[in-house]
Amino acid sequence: HSDDKPYKCSECSYSCKSPGYLNKHMLAHSNEKPYKCSVCNYCCKTSGDIRKHMPTHSDEKPYKCSICNYSGKSSKVLKLHIMRIHSEENPFICSGCNFSCKTRGHLKLHMVYSHTDEKSYKCHECGYSFKISWDLKKHQLTHCFDKPYKCAECNFSCIKRNGLLRHQKIHTDEKPYKCNECSFSCRQSGNLNTHMRTYTGQKPFKCDKCNVSTRQSGQLKRHMLIHTGEKPYQCSQCDYNCRRSEGLLRHMKTHQ
Fold it and tell me: For a tag site, which of 38, 212, 216, 248 has the least CB within 10 Å?
């Protein structure tokens, strides 16, 4: 039960209680991705990430919400859905301010974005650095123009298989997710959840810097860039950078 964390990272301020955790953390500072998918060309840094990835090769969603028609691929995903959508409780409280939220992950993001200036995750292609590894992963996609997953119906292509699966639904008329308040229907459960908030008025994602609140976590993340001044999407051919990926895509056309 000791709070001692004797194993310290030589690259950043991270410390932990066991050498195994430190070895796992050090992968964040390297390009090594030893875990490879046996179905596609996806590779990652941890065994946990490969386990999370494998359900993307299956359409089965056996875990069903008892309150709405949402279904998920794992019990963890279902628990997160219930907490985020159907619960008003915010059990995770920041020790540095009055911010509270529904998940431990959201609290960790808040602590990094709001209470530290350290940017430990550096892009080896351009030198741009980030506060969290996920932002670095998204940024690194801007350096990758290989899109191996191609639609057989049109010229759409993408980096990940699940992106292609989502896209292919536009070529069918199937919209299995239906609103019980109106005639709205859609192809993805997440879109239905967002739509339902137009009836509840719920905006669960709140900015801790101002009074803005949003219906989607992605909207809040984009909003937070206004406060941080970060422009994570950087052109690989000039010094242009911007806050949104679509802005970079528009800019890249100027180099064609």
Answer: 38
Percent of the chain with pLDDT over 70: 97
Residues 30 and 45: their CA atoms lie apart, in Å, by: 9
**Mean pLDDT across the chain, nearest whole number?**
82
User: What CATH number was assigned to the domain covering residues 7-57?
Assistant: 3.30.160.60
Whole-model pTM: value is 0.35
For the chain, report the end-to-end CA distance as a whole number of angstroms. 59
Query: How many whole angstroms separate alpha carbon 242 and alpha carbon 233?
Result: 5
Question: What stretches of 27-103 show up as alpha helix (H) in DSSP?
Answer: 47-53, 75-86
Question: pLDDT tens-digit profile of 140-182?
Answer: 776 766 677 888 888 888 877 778 887 888 888 778 788 888 8
Closest C-alpha among 163, 166, 189 to residue 176: 189
Cα 196 from chain centroid (whole Å): 22
Q: Which long-range contacts (CB under 8 A, 24 or more apart) does 248-254 make?
A: 248/142
pLDDT over 80 at 139, yes or no: no
* Residue 78: other Cβ atoms inside 10 A: 19
Q: Give the long-range contacts of residues 53-57, CB within 8 A, separation 24 or more.
A: 56/160, 56/161, 56/162, 56/165, 57/161
Q: Decide if 107 contacts 97 (C-beta within 8 A).
A: no
